Amino acid sequence: GLILGIESSCDETAAAVVRRGGEALSNVVASQMELHANYGGVVPELASREHLRNIVVIVREAMARAGVSFAELDAVAVTEGPGLAGALLVGITYAKALAYGVGKPLIGVNHLEGHIHAVLMEARARAEEAMEMPLLALVVSGGHTHLYLAKQVDASWRYQNVGKTVDDAAGEAFDKVAKLLGLGYPGGPWIDGLAGLGNPKAVEFKFGQIKTRAEKGGRSFEELARFDFSFSGIKTAVLRYVETQGMREAISVRREALAGVAKPTVADAAGLCDGRTLDLIASFQGAVVGNLLRQAFGAAEAFGARGIVVSGGVAANGELRRRFLAEGERRGLPVAFPSLALSTDNAAMIAAAAWPRFLAVEFADEGMGALPQMRLG
Ligand code: ATP
Ligand code: MG
Ligand code: FE
Predict the structure, then answer these.
(1) Is 154 annotated as a binding residue?
(2) What range(s) does the Gcp-like domain occupy (predicted)?
(3) Residue 206: exposed, middle, or buried by beta-carbon count in 10 A (0-12, 13-18, 19+)?
(4) 373 C-beta neighbours (distance < 10 Å), count
(5) How confident is the model at residue 226, as a pLDDT?
(6) How far is the CA of 31 from the centre of ligand 2 (A)?
(7) Could you tell which of 117, 141, 194 is best to mutate to test the pocket of ligand 1, judged by most ligand atoms within 8 Å of the CB?
(8) Atom of ligand 1 nearest to the CA of 139
(9) Could you read off the pLDDT of 273-295 as tens digits, one per residue?
(10) CA-nearest residue, atom 5 of ligand 1
(11) Is the pTM of this model over 0.90?
(12) What are phi and psi of 59, to 5 degrees?
């Protein structure tokens, strides 16, 4: 039951060997974060080139750490989409060649399904009683903010999308607001670290109702019961607050000062933020987390979910973890997160998601290509 997983959909080149979808024998990730930080976001051409440079070494390292040979593998799994076309293509082409070369089946995995399985594989490894179906899964990262109703039918998993962002992803809002306030990239960890120092009630941010297709004249229940998100409004609201409060000057000073520090930390940034800025940061994070919480628990209730799993880079957020766990406890609904290592992009989750497909003999053919817009469910 050994599967080699390969992931290259965005800015992490990753490989992992996982046994029976639950036990990671190795999990190697090469992040390109520092490379892209210079540009304040992921540059697709640079990402592809870095994947190409890293993939052979990363796969070799994952195999070595797991202590298994290619001959001992049962399958090779790779992220098919969604993601950057050129970046995906590096992993897919390599995985195809490898699978063909060593005579093993190839399995294509949806990256979002991978994020969901990051939580499930650890729950399985901890040998907790299996979470009851259906589950409500929130995948929240720099590129995605999706809600799925997930359930296992025989060996296979079925997903129904019940909510997604109509504009920015939540992680993108963290990144943009951090940039706007003169903090580092990616923004999440900076805001997470500073939010605890401010008053989350200082500034009020509102999330309007998202107009669903149903409200525009559609009819079906599925269309009515949507739990969509919108995060571009709060980014604009923060910008407006900065303008009206005359915070521009202080932001430039902070940006320059941080740029002058070799390896700036949250403590460095804290020393450069006044109380009003910390209050703004705390209020922003509190509002975003509150909105994610309302939508996720609202959807869980509407669809009768028996538990909630949260994953993706933003699932690393401290306030989000605390509040989701507290709300789950209050409602008697189990809530699970991946460990921090499996919150962000990795290949163990890809190998884990491939396991049910391996059991169901759902293999890819040589025609498999990158699906940049691939949907789940
Ligand atoms: P994809 O969306 O395709 O999964 P990604 O690279 O954008 O790719 P991840 O690597 O899973 O996603 O996560 C990165 C995102 O998570 C960034 O937007 C980052 O700001 C956010 N993030 C990381 N840590 C935290 C945190 N502690 N609090 C809030 N956001 C965080
Ligand atoms: Mg990433
Ligand atoms: Fe991801």
Answers:
(1) no
(2) 24-351
(3) exposed
(4) 9
(5) 87
(6) 7
(7) 141
(8) 4
(9) 999 999 999 999 999 999 999 99
(10) 142
(11) yes
(12) -65, -45
